[in-house]
Write a structure and sequence with these properties.
heterodimer; A: Immunoglobulin-like; Neuraminidase; 2 domains; seven-stranded mixed β-sheet; six-stranded mixed β-sheet; 9% helix; B: 532 residues; mainly alpha; 29 helices; 62% helix
Chain lengths: 542, 532
């Protein structure tokens, strides 16, 4: 009994210490307002946030200050949070939620106070606008060291954006093992729902993992006519189909260049995989063109993709083995247009490819087209050259309004650094994209509001419980994909599927309407004829 | 209990009545304190450099989120604790003190827990000595590819087990605690001597094995440490003192020190460059050529900043971040003016114990290009940065050699000199001759002069374009005549002839690096590669 009392006493003392150490959140009674803006990290000033986002914890940086208080006000609600000399302001989740709910469609004013040797100061206030529309609650991404050749520990993780919870969807082997090492990539969901998902496993235990009805199975998309296996995927919105690109990809490292490396395709085609029948066929197979990044429209009647014609860059008199070297020397001359090809879901037949955005003619290159779930906009990345824009500082986000046919850059969202891979929220009002703007090397997912007029607003990096984690994490967020719901299949089941099955070979069944041109003279590219006589001739729409 | 109380007076009486041997005071020394001192000497003075570098190739911060890459692996917590202890090796005497304390305490507890009698007491030192032997046997493997957590992790877990065991014994049997500092009363001079003999014999055996089979381990680690401290004179002195030893990390450190002191074309061939096979294994358990140990630094000091970052990243992917890689990445980011990136790495390093000085020095350079360019090391590196861009895969690896072999335009005389020396190193004389033009009319450095004399054979008259070559011809003739009998079996006689001709390029040309010339360069394994 004596011990019991002692334990209670110790616990009480510890509690006092903990509570005593926590800085007191109280607006100073006396302060002087200064015109200087608070230096906060990450930059959460004057942004638009979804009403369901987790607290935007931040760090205040002021070399003179020893304590801070943040006061958030709006809609009759107030939230106070304090920070010690480390400047880390962490907000109470319940209070934050109440504040956002009370200010949907309105503004929250943020006042930050700092205690300097000569007293408290209040920086210039800023606002956070709260949108009416929520963002899809889950964000999946791969965490991986930024883009080099080797891989070791990596995994696909899912973050609940309304909280700070992050759970692994799948992690590869944690300890090096020659027979177990494998890479995972290209996770993808059907129309923002995790009911149908897929990702690829490379090297040991390789194959494409398809998850439907809570069950995972492995398939092998291999055929002598297929370049490699499936790479960039896009689930058809209504049919149980997936469009894949199949790419022969390589990378090379600059010796002295602002960009660190180039990732280039030597060849690429498009495939259609029927999940139900386990059949694969070509959509486009051309020797002269490289087609990649397929993306279905929400009605499933059009497939967008990117295409480049590099035949002019290759000396056909030289052996095939030199193609990659030939292309490498002209890495900045390979440019992709945005293309589309009609599709009839009933007959599963494809029509004629068309140019949607002729970027090549303006000396630019397009990658990663993604159609908004409402079907009105195509969001894509535009850079100076190539298709792996995550390593190009010139890359920016652009949209094409399919109603007005106009294309424009999302200047509010873009930065001088890389702004690339993106994913729409299912209400078309938000998108997440990868950006290297924080340090030029490690990608972080940024959220941007996309209003009804088709304008993007200033983006913000996804909130972290400890805002310094954005600096401390030595991995990149790769392929951020939004989804309405959480991934349901357990890691154990995925592990079992990956480790214990070899994968069923998909049957290759040619599609009679596929574009097959292997003579190297024409292709589904801007260089092809436009008189309609050639099967793969594009029609310029822009 | 009764029996014990009955026996105690009897023992006391016997001790009182039996006079101690007359020579006991002269001969008997407290073994445990001496063992502690010997362990400390071994762990700090003898093997301290190896553990110090092991620390450099580890990362430890208290934040378990950053350390997740270790914690998620088997025995992750043990590795985490081991790495934490290893941090003390920033100062080898301090890390050695902890190591010696753990080994000594482990030995003492072993004796206690196993209830060893005086005649068997030497056995209590065997686990600690076995540990030292295992560490010595593994050599470079103790830190290469980052299994560094076990260096302290294993003694720690053994110590914990012994502590628990000891507490249990003490709780139930009330066995008396043996002396820690003094000589146990039950120990005769002979038993005392046996213990010393066993300890000394095994220590001599361990050190002897190290000197015989792993002599390069301490040298490589000392060189890597000096490289970090920019002790170029120290590197040269140590490398030349071990000139007969040959391995790539040593050659790279030595080359870097010569580049940094402007002597690359004077003294590169003072050490043997034949590259003996080393006992070192990668994560895959296969033999490794240690290129990850010298490629990042080699590229950095060669002026290839992007490629150094590339090499650092590849290594970081495979082993997780290390202090050394983060420091090098910081310097690379500063040189590329990637200020936020440099600050990121510094933010992590600030959480590492004892790294304040580095963070202070390089933290001050963030956003200050003038300070970066004024730093002597970086200023010199700037002189050899490439003039034009190209891709790494266009060159033989490692890049700092391959690029210089094909250099067509440099930004300084230093770049030209590096290129000429690489041509001579690779024995590619046509490339060497092609690059000589800027030196026409000058007196080239000694190695270049010797190279010109050798090139004279296929390029008659070439030596006339340079000054100071007159006396080189007789020297070359004399060398060729003297070595003619050995030309039949050059690999066989190379080692024997080295002491006589070290530093002389024609010796290297004919007898040096024959294995490497045959095999060419090694490159990264592609088994674990992909586009990420």
């Amino acid at each position: 009994m004596k011990h019991y009392t002692l334990y209670i006493y110790i616990y009480y003392c510890l509690l006092l210490v903990v509570v005593g150490c926590k800085p007191k959140a109280e607006v100073p009674s006396q302060f002087s307002a200064i015109e200087t803006e608070a230096s906060i990290y990450p930059d959460y000033k004057d942004i638009v946030v979804p009403p369901n986002i987790a607290p935007l914890n931040f760090i205040v940086r002021d070399s003179l200050a020893t304590a801070y208080v943040a006061q958030l006000q709006g809609g009759g609600h107030e939230l106070l949070a304090a920070a010690s000399d480390n400047g880390i302001v962490q907000m109470d989740t319940v209070e934050w939620r109440a504040l956002l709910n009370a200010n949907k469609g309105g503004d929250v004013e943020v006042k930050v106070y700092a205690q300097r040797p000569d007293g408290w100061v209040q920086y210039k206030p800023y606002t956070i606008s709260v949108a009416e529309e929520p963002i899809d609650a889950f964000l999946s991404y791969r965490l991986i060291e930024p883009g080099y050749e080797l891989y070791r520990q990596l995994g696909i993780y899912q973050r609940n954006l309304t909280t700070f919870d992050e759970v692994p969807v799948y992690e590869n082997n944690r300890e090096y093992c020659d027979g177990e090492n494998h890479c995972i990539n290209c996770h993808n969901y059907r129309m923002g729902s995790t009911e149908s998902m897929l990702f690829h496993v490379r090297a040991n235990h390789g194959g494409t993992i398809i998850v439907q009805d809570g069950k995972a199975h492995k398939i092998q998309l291999k055929d002598s006519t297929i370049i490699t296996s499936g790479v960039y995927p896009s689930w058809h919105p209504t049919e149980n189909l997936v469009a894949f690109s199949t790419n022969k990809t390589g990378q090379a490292f600059h010796v002295y260049h602002p960009e660190k490396l180039e990732v280039m395709d030597e060849k690429s085609d498009l495939l259609l995989y029927d999940v139900t029948k386990n059949e694969v066929s070509h959509i486009i197979r051309t020797s002269a063109d490289m087609e990649t990044f397929p993306c279905w429209t929400p009605d499933g009647r059009t497939l967008y993709y990117c295409s480049a014609n590099a035949s002019g860059l290759i000396d056909s008199s030289l052996p095939d083995s030199t193609i990659s070297q030939q292309l490498l020397f002209q890495f900045d001359k390979i440019r992709y247009n945005l293309m589309s090809i009609p599709f009839d879901p009933k007959t599963r037949s494809f029509g004629q490819p068309q140019i949607v955005v002729d970027a090549v003619s303006e000396g630019k290159s397009i990658s990663v087209p993604r159609v908004s779930p409402d079907g009105r906009y195509i969001l894509y990345t535009k850079g100076d050259y190539g298709q792996f824009h995550i390593w190009h500082k010139s890359s920016d986000l652009w949209v094409k309004d399919l109603q007005t046919d106009s294309c424009y850059a999302l200047n509010e969202a873009n930065s001088p650094d890389v702004d690339s891979f993106h994913s729409w929220s299912s209400n078309s009002r938000w998108f997440v994209f990868s950006s290297r703007r924080m340090d030029g090397n490690y990608t972080r997912p940024f959220i941007a509001y996309f209003d009804k007029d088709g304008c993007a607003h200033k983006p913000f990096v996804i909130p972290q419980e400890d805002p310094e984690w954005n600096i401390l994490l030595l991995k990149s967020y790769n392929v951020p994909e939004l989804s309405r719901d959480a991934v349901r299949i357990s890691m154990k089941d995925l592990h079992q599927c990956i480790y214990e099955t070899d994968g069923e070979n998909a049957n290759y069944k040619p599609n009679p309407t596929a574009i097959i041109q292997l003579d190297g003279t024409t292709g589904a590219s801007p260089r092809a004829k436009v008189d309609g006589t050639s099967g793969a001739s594009p029609k310029k729409r822009e | 209990m009764q029996k014990k109380t009955q026996k105690q007076p009897h023992k006391a009486v016997r001790q009182q009545t039996t006079p101690p041997p007359a020579k006991r005071k002269e001969w008997v020394l407290p073994v445990l304190p001496v063992f502690f001192v010997l362990c400390w000497l071994w762990a700090a003075w003898y093997y301290g450099s190896v553990f110090h570098i092991s620390r450099e190739y580890s990362l430890w911060v208290a934040d378990t989120r950053i350390m997740q890459f270790i914690l998620c692996q088997p025995y992750g917590v043990l590795r985490y604790i081991g790495r934490a202890m290893l941090q003390l090796y920033q100062y080898p005497w301090l890390g050695g003190l902890l190591m010696a304390l753990m080994l000594t305490a482990g030995s003492w507890l072993t004796g206690y827990c196993m209830r060893l009698r005086a005649s068997w007491r030497y056995l209590q030192y065997l686990p600690a000595l076995f540990y030292m032997a295992v560490v010595t046997y593994h050599g470079l493997d103790v830190f290469f590819e980052a299994r560094t957590g076990f260096i302290f992790g294993i003694p720690f877990v053994v110590l914990v087990v012994l502590c628990i065991w000891g507490i249990i014994i003490r709780s139930f049997s009330r066995k008396p605690i043996p002396a820690v500092v003094g000589v146990p009363k039950d120990e005769t001079p002979r038993q005392n001597g046996i213990q010393f003999a066993v300890i000394v014999a095994l220590l001599v055996a361990i050190i002897g094995f190290d000197q015989w089979q792993r002599p390069y381990v301490r040298v490589i680690c000392q060189l890597l440490d000096m490289e970090y401290r920019q002790d170029w004179a120290g590197i040269q002195k140590l490398a030349r003192a071990n000139a007969q030893m040959s391995n790539r990390p040593m050659a790279c450190s030595y080359g870097i020190s010569l580049v940094q002191t402007g002597q690359i074309a004077e003294r590169l061939f003072d050490i043997r460059l034949d590259y003996d096979s080393l006992h070192v294994h990668g994560m895959d358990g296969k033999g490794n050529n240690l290129n990850s140990l010298y490629t990042p630094e080699g590229n950095y000091y060669g002026g290839f900043i992007e490629s150094s970052m590339h090499a650092c990243m590849e290594q970081m992917v495979m082993t997780g971040p290390t202090i050394r890689l983060l420091k090098l990445l910081t310097k690379c980011a500063l040189m590329r003016e990637e200020w936020e990136l440099a600050e990121k790495y510094l933010t992590v390093l600030r959480r590492v114990p004892f790294e304040g000085a580095f963070c202070k020095k390089y933290g001050a350079m963030v956003h200050h290009l003038d300070l970066v360019n004024a730093e002597p090391e970086m200023a010199l590196i700037r002189l050899t940065e490439p003039v034009h861009d190209s891709f790494e895969n266009q060159y033989q690896q490692p890049l700092f050699m391959g690029y210089n072999l094909m250099l067509v335009e440099g930004r300084s005389a230093n770049a030209l000199m590096n290129s000429l020396v690489v041509c001579l190193y690779t024995k590619l004389m046509p490339q060497f001759v092609e690059r000589l033009e800027p030196l026409i009319g000058t007196t080239p450095p000694s190695i270049i002069m010797d190279g010109i004399m050798l090139a004279e054979n296929k390029n008659p008259g070439i030596s006339q374009h340079f000054a100071g070559l007159n006396f080189r011809q007789p020297q070359l003739q004399s060398f060729l005549e003297n070595t003619r009998p050995y030309m039949k079996d050059r690999p066989g006689f190379a080692y024997e002839l080295f002491p006589k001709y070290k530093g002389y390029y024609p010796y290297y040309y004919f007898f040096g690096n024959l294995k490497a010339t045959r095999k060419g360069y090694t490159s990264l394994s592609s088994s674990n590669s992909g586009v990420n």
